[in-house]
Amino acid sequence: MNFLKNKTVLITGGTGSFGTAATEFLLKECNLKKLIIFSRDENKQFQMQNKFKDGKIRFFIGDIRDEDRLEMALKDVDYVIHAAALKQVPAAEYNPFECIKTNVNGAQALISASLKNKVKKVIALSTDKACNPINLYGATKLCAEKLFVNANQLSGKNNTRFGVVRYGNVISSRGSVIPYFKDLIEKGKKELPLTHWEMTRFFITLTDAVKFVLNSLKVLNGGEIFIPKMNSIFIRDLIFLVNKKAKIKITGIRPGEKIHESLCSYDESSGLYESKDYFTIYAHNMPYKKKSGKKLNKKFSYSSNSKMSLDKIKIQKLIKKIKIL
Question: Where exactly are the structural domains of the chain?
């Protein structure tokens, strides 16, 4: 990660699972000039201050919706990783105004503040739920994707570049299913809830997510959506990995929930290029001098229930690798 040497990086939502893992990696592997953690939770910032006693870290309390505060925080910043978001599907359905303010208006505020400060590159974290969304969370992340992709047309002579990383569920992150199932088991629950027997999901480790985001930031030219090649699993199989003797109770699909998720739809595949470990969706309205990877000429979709991605053994290896069970 030599491109980050002596550079200043800001992470929005930096006290979350991704931000914490990214902070650990950046401080250990990259000789940064400064790392700024931007978030609105003073208690989590206090916890991070105690965990990472490093003179290169600065903590800014602020809301992603507040453009003035962002302008102040982004002064002399080279690179931005945008991880701040409201992510819980049921909460977004119940609090739609708040979700839009954070995920859409917040994205716009960050873009404007980044342009004013002449930031070099901004990479935004997105989700498989932004692909053909049926819930508000996914719809707001799709809107955010469109904002970041098309923000490149606003850069002018500033040459600030914007891009997106889209991936699935992070194993062991806050609010994810494995810690949730483990908590139920520890509380003595005999049955574990599953909303649908055929439910599948993509999974990635925090470490792999951090590395992929940073590599995407490095190669970003502007307007790309980067998608890592991920494996998926039936959630029923995941439950049995957590507890071989578990009994499953089907509870019914929640509002806004899909049975399967997609990282790339048929409609997006016209701009899709495949590399060894990832896919790239190139924006049709951006003039690229060079496109990385092989153009996929056939109609293609990348879904969590496809034979290409379903792999219980690989997910099991990921779980063992991070020692969460």
Answer: 2-169+205-230+264-301
Tokens matching residue 134: 């049926």
Q: Return the CATH number of 2-169+205-230+264-301, one of 3.40.50.2300, 3.30.1490.20, 2.30.30.220, 3.40.50.720.
A: 3.40.50.720
What interhelical angle do 136-150 and 106-116 show, nearest 10? 20
88-111: burial string, b at 16+ Cβ within 10 Å, e else: ebeebbeeeeebbbbbbbbbbbbb
Can you tell me whether residue 305 is helix, strand or coil?
coil
pTM (global) more than 0.90: yes
Residues belonging to the active site: 129
pLDDT of amino acid 190? 85
Partners of 303 in beta bridges: 262
Residues 145-177 have pLDDT tens digits of: 999 999 999 988 789 999 999 999 998 777 789
